[in-house]
# Entry
Amino acid sequence: MKIVVIGGTGLIGSKLVAKLVEHGHEAVAASPGTGVDTLTGEGLAEALAGAEVVVDVSNSPSFEDAAVLDFFRTSTTNLLAAEAAAGVGHHVALSVVGTDRLPDSGYFRAKIAQEELIKASPVPWSIVHATQFFEFFHAMAQSASDGASVHLAPVLVQPMAADDVAAAVGRVAVAAPLHGTVEVGGPEQFRLDDFIRQGLDAHEDPRKVVTDPKAPYFGAQLSERTLVPGDGALLAATRFADWLQADVARAAAASA
Ligand SMILES: NC(=O)c1ccc[n+]([C@@H]2O[C@H](COP(=O)([O-])OP(=O)(O)OC[C@H]3O[C@@H](n4cnc5c(N)ncnc54)[C@H](OP(=O)(O)O)[C@@H]3O)[C@@H](O)[C@H]2O)c1
# Structure
């Protein structure tokens, strides 16, 4: 199958392209870096010619409220129109578990807008809701940091490895359209503050995590189960402790 991966040079996209190629598919990594821009439409029709499936794992370069909303609205509108014109039979998008419960966050309002456009489109679709990537803990800490400390609510999270996210998205991409949303999560639950504390401690990051039930998450207040998937979720295998050990070793090798 020819499968175009929008955002195919990103964290999830590059892993997904590699997995699809390994399974014998013609996977095309599409991003501004490879001459395909979903905001301007540049290179889109050419990339989509002959494609059966398009997977959107792109992300906005800016998380500022107006910019991220404009990114997902414009890119998704352009992409779905190009897919309809090219006769693409399946649009797969990666979004986040709990997106519909987070309308107070500018980032999640943009993901809600993306999902609404997909559901209203004539192109057959599937949405994968994944939990927070282990790899994202650095960015989560950064966004909740005032320099010396990191303020986080002690709510439940069920994070997962980016490799497992890519595998789950790949399985959905090669199957029939769901016209629905599937949830994927990690094998264990943590408290958000403990999860980030473990990551920072393992990397000997001096910042202290402060447990604060009122701390916002990308602009939104969280309740106990906002970020965890429901009962029917597919659970990935990689455990945080194993991933973290390898991540610390990677960081040490990179700085050696
Ligand atoms: N972070 C999490 O924990 C989490 C959890 C669940 C779901 N998600 C979702 O996962 C998705 C992928 O995240 P990620 O961390 O893998 O993203 P990422 O590493 O930041 O990669 C973003 C990709 O989007 C591409 N891109 C940017 N602007 C584009 C444009 N105008 N046209 C086409 N492509 C464009 C980038 O291309 P260039 O490199 O060429 O700029 C890059 O390939 C996001 O939609 C996010 O909402 C994230």
